[in-house]
Amino acid sequence: MEKVEALKQIHEKWFVDCKCELKKTATQPVPGNGNPESLIVFIGEAPGKSEDAPGIPFVGAAGKFLAEMLENIGLKREEIYITNILKYRPPNNRDPLPEEKDACREWLHEELNFIKPKLIVFLGRHSMNDFFPTETISNVHGKLLIKKFKNIETKYFLPLYHPAAALYNGGMRETLMEDFKKIPKILEKIEKEN
User: N or C terminus of the chain with fewer C-beta within 10 Å?
Assistant: First the structure.
């Protein structure tokens, strides 16, 4: 319970300190949500319309699909932690701008270093490219990437297609579901190595 409270305080600090211009147009900030003891953190792109109102990430159609995929690998939404690169909704759900990502980056890093997940799962190219700018999601989806960053403790990353993109593309949906099934084995492998 202490960890939940400490994480809440981190978010409350950033509600004030974050300099993202989207603060002016979004309903409210949408911090990460879930279990601060989670071994996995999922990172999406930005809150959408469904997330902007309640202030919780992944509660729309993509979130329902994500919950379904979690169940398929024996996990519940409450057991994992999920956040976004941006903490404020871009108008009309447009792609995040580089300066918006920059404005929210320290908040994300503090969140990640507080939770200390064994594995970070990128949901879509925007979150992946924030860490791996030269990779393309079509080349690396479902493949474990290992890299030590100077400002993040986690070094294991798994890029996946974004659930929202997969909702409207049958082939991508199948691929995402197959890639998602690799998560338990990847976690097992990481835990053996550490």
Answer: N
